[in-house]
Amino acid sequence: MGSQDRVLVLGATGGVGGEIARQLRAAGWPVRALRRGPAAAALDDGIEWQVGDAMQTEDVMAAARGCSVIVHAVNPPGYRRWSELVLPMLDNTIAAARAHGATVVLPGTVYNYGPDVFPLIAEDAPQRPLTRKGAIRVEMERRLEAAAASGALRVLILRCGDFFGPGVRNSWFSQGMLRPGRPVTQVQLPGPGVGHQYAYLPDVARCVLRLLARRAELPAFTRLHFGGHWDDDGSQLARAVQRVVVAHGGATPRLAPFGWWQVWLAAPFVTTLRELLEMRYLWRQPVQLDNRRLLALLGDEPHTPLDEAAATTLQALGCLPAAPPRAARSLRPLP
């Protein structure tokens, strides 16, 4: 790591950006982040917080001064106002990266793709999304690719499946499968019998660190797919939750189909539910990102065992009972 390897993380108060910021800091990177409100300067977490807003070009420009990397992990909360906010925020990041010759890191998703390229998706598969968010994601990548082609900046996109892990806010795991802050008595399955891909956030952050260490070897515009946890029948993450809850002294949570009909009824009145309903096509058939290029580059991929990842996430969500875990043998698969 050179003397100029300072990184700016936009979205460091969120789940994805926060985890990447913490791991960068722990690895010795000087980390700077934006936060709205004067309380930012009072935080004592090893991150250089600056008061600012990702929607303000001058704030992002000032924060990026002296940074060789900008992690763009900022999103409007609760899926609201995407069409108004997402692209202007990205344009500010691109402008700052151009001005300072920085590498832009974008945590990507499967929203870019439609069913025509399912079930196994390569990085260069055609992008024909079915949703508004998907179209915005495609436009984000188009703008980044055009900026990289100009030679003024570099881009690294790591596309991932559904995020789960400590700090993740907008996720199927914490918003659709169970209820945060309560003991787990039931886990809902959005796509029972259908394969689905999950990305455990600490593993994603570790992968970003490894890729940044080799960014000089990568093409100026690089897209890679993160494998994460492949749930081959749509129930494996839920069964891991069952095992973890039992190991912590709780009763086995029951598995139940997700209430899509309830979402359909309430969607006209709740923005987040409308967005969830728009994503239903991702649960009707297997959707898997092909990570062979990433494995060829790194040799392997950071991978936390599923039960351990589920336990850490449940603890962060306040869902585990206070009783200490039972012996490790209690983590055997449930019938």
UniProtKB/TrEMBL annotation:
Q: Name one Pfam family in it.
A: Epimerase
Query: Which region is the signal sequence?
Result: none
Question: NAD-dependent epimerase/dehydratase domain location, by residue?
Answer: 7-216
Coiled-coil annotation: which residues? Answer: none
- Please give the SUPFAM superfamilies that the UniProt record associates with this protein: NAD(P)-binding Rossmann-fold domains
**Protein's recorded name:** NAD-dependent epimerase/dehydratase domain-containing protein
Biological source species? Rubrivivax gelatinosus (Rhodocyclus gelatinosus)
